[in-house]
Each structure stands twice: as structure tokens, then as C-alpha cells.
């Protein structure tokens, strides 16, 4: 069994590696200090199981797990946590494997023996329930491309553009397609993006202005984007109010 260990504390990673080394037919093939590193390592070393800390800088374990679930062959996930009893109940309800810190050998062995992959619905539900104050929000958008699972920082996204069943994500390095809906993206990132059309959300931080186009139509200018995006008539007034408050 190939194991990837992800924890932002080196001492915690070292402890888990020592425990795994003592388990027959299990080996640590990679380690990571945060969720983003775990995704990169998982794509290169193809682990069977990821031992995932939850509270980590840059990208936490819940977000990393959601992205990992989109891989062609996602690894099984075991969360390592110091959460209290109330939060742990959420893990149990959704049948999510977890280990309480400090992890002991017997619990780790049992968890590895029954480790399983988790779907995105499970992960979304558990994520909402263990949030301490406000709902979690991703820091990255993930897309399956010919390069594998590609991570796009949300603060680099210029706009989301819907076209039939996919959404195009335009960001500083290019474009990728995702299978999420604008409604879902607007609900999650509504304070960072504004709807300008039934098929488009644009990033507030990249808006340079709105201008009149031909035949009375309006367009929006975005920093770093050559093309102009159409603003539907029903969204002109709302966008104008937003721009006044920027």
C-alpha cells in the first residue's frame, strides 16, 4: 500500500512515517506540507492512500480532498484531526475515515485496512459541518486537463463563462474547462465576482470599467483580458452600482 503523508508539521509527518514503516505491506512514497503540495505529489507518485491533516496553511485538508476526488483514480483518504467530539460526529455520520491526533499504531493500521475513496458530495457535506465559524470557501479551482489535475488560484481568475454543460475559467495563465455551474460558483464566490450576463461572472478585482458598444449594448473591460465581455441589459444597472462602490 502506497501512502502519502500530508501535514504542515514536520514532527507530525515524521511520526506518521515511522508508524507506517512498521506496518507490513505499507510504505510512505511521498510527503507534503499542505494540501496544494499533496495534490502535486499525488499526481506524480499515485498513492493508494493519503493521510491528510485538516488545518494547514495555503490549502487545508478539506479543500485538498475535494480536488483529489476529481483525479481519474483518486486515492483513499484518511483525515488526521484534533477536532472535538461535536465535529467528529460529522465524520462518523458521513462514514469518513479519520484518525485522532496523536495517532497511534493500532488506529492507523485499522484505518489503512478499511481506507476508501470519498465522493465530492460526502466531502462537501462534511466540510460544511466541521467549519468553525463560516462556510469554507476554496482558494483554488481544479480542472482535469491533459496535464492532469490543474489548480487555478481563485484570485487569478478573470471570469467564468458558461457554455452548454461546461464553464470556461479564464485566468492569468490561460483557460480551463470545469463541470461546475455558474450558480454554484456565484454562491461560493459571490463577494469576489459579479454576474454581468446569464452566462458570465467577472472578477471584481480585474474590472477596469464598463463602456457602450454598438446598438446600445454594454461591455466590460477586464485588466489582462483583450476581449470585451457583453453585459446584458438586465445586469447593466447592477454592474453600474457595483462599479460605483469599488
TrEMBL record:
This is Alginate biosynthesis regulator. It comes from the Bacteria. Residues 2-116 form the Response regulatory domain. The modification 4-aspartylphosphate is found at residue 53. Pfam families: LytTR, Response_reg. Keywords: Phosphoprotein, Two-component regulatory system. SUPFAM superfamilies: CheY-like. SMART domains: LytTR, REC. It comes from Alcanivorax borkumensis (strain ATCC 700651 / DSM 11573 / NCIMB 13689 / SK2). Residues 141-245 form the HTH LytTR-type domain. One of its GO terms (molecular function) is DNA binding.
